[in-house]
C-alpha cells in the first residue's frame, strides 16, 4: 500500500514570511508579460472612428461556424469593412488558419467582406496565419506590410499590437466590442496565459511555422 505524503505547512513566522515572499515573487513573474503587453500597446488602441489612416487593415481569424465566420470574427470583419468604407485603409489582409481540409478561415473571411462591399481586388488572403505571431511576422516578411490598423476583439488587440510592433509593423489597433459572455471571459483568461508566449516571441522573433516566398498581393491591392 502506497503511503500518502503529507503537505507540511510553514510553522514558524520566518517560514511563513518566506513562503509569502515566494508566492508574491511568482505572481509578479507570472503577470510581468501581461503588464508589459498592456503598457506597450495600450495607447495605440482606438475605435473605428478615430483610427489613424494606414495602407492596410489586418484582420485576425477567430473561428468558423459551419464554414462561416463565427460571431466574433464577423464583428472583426464588420469593423474592417467600415475602415475601408471610411477610407481609413485601402486594402484588407485577412489572416487565419487553413492547415486542414474543410477548414478555411481566410476564404470565409474574404467571402464575408465581399458581401459587405469590399472589392475583391482590395482583399488579400494569408492562409498560414496559424497564431498571432505568425500572422504579424508573415504580414511584414511575406506581404511587405510596414504600417497597418489591426482589427480584433478588445481582449486580444493588445497582444496583437505588441507582436506586430515586434515583427516590424507600425500598428494601431481597433478593439472591437464584444458581448461579455462565456467566450469573452475565456478569451480574457486565455490572454493572461498567452502573454508569456507573446513576450518570448517578441524577444526571440522566431520564424513563423510557414514562411514561404514574398507575395505581391498587398502591393498590388494598393496600386
UniProtKB/TrEMBL annotation:
Pfam families associated with the record: DUF218 (PF02698)
Protein name: ElyC/SanA/YdcF family protein
Superkingdom, natural source: Bacteria
Signal sequence residues: none
Organism: Streptomyces mooreae
InterPro entries for this protein: Cell_Envelope_Assoc, DUF218
Record domain DUF218: where: 56-174
Amino acid at each position: 500500500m502506497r503511503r500518502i505524503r503529507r503537505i507540511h505547512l510553514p510553522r514558524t513566522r520566518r517560514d511563513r514570511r518566506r513562503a509569502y515572499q515566494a508566492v508574491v515573487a511568482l505572481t509578479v513573474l507570472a503577470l510581468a508579460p501581461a503588464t508589459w503587453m498592456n503598457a506597450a500597446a495600450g495607447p495605440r488602441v482606438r475605435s473605428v472612428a478615430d483610427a489613424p489612416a494606414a495602407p492596410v487593415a489586418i484582420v485576425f481569424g477567430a473561428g468558423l461556424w459551419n464554414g462561416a465566420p463565427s460571431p466574433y470574427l464577423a464583428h472583426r470583419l464588420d469593423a474592417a469593412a467600415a475602415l475601408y468604407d471610411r477610407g481609413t485603409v485601402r486594402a484588407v489582409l485577412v489572416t487565419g488558419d487553413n492547415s486542414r481540409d474543410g477548414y478555411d478561415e481566410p476564404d470565409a473571411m474574404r467571402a464575408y467582406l465581399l458581401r459587405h462591399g469590399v472589392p475583391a481586388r482590395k482583399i488579400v488572403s494569408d492562409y498560414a496565419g496559424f497564431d498571432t505571431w505568425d500572422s504579424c511576422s508573415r504580414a511584414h516578411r511575406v506581404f511587405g506590410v510596414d504600417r497597418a490598423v489591426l482589427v480584433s476583439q478588445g481582449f486580444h488587440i493588445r497582444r496583437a499590437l505588441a507582436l506586430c510592433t515586434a515583427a516590424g509593423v507600425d500598428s494601431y489597433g481597433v478593439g472591437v466590442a464584444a458581448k461579455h459572455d462565456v467566450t469573452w471571459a475565456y478569451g480574457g483568461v486565455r490572454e493572461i496565459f498567452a502573454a508569456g508566449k507573446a513576450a518570448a516571441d517578441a524577444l526571440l522573433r522566431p520564424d513563423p511555422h510557414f514562411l514561404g516566398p514574398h507575395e505581391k498581393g498587398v502591393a498590388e491591392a494598393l496600386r
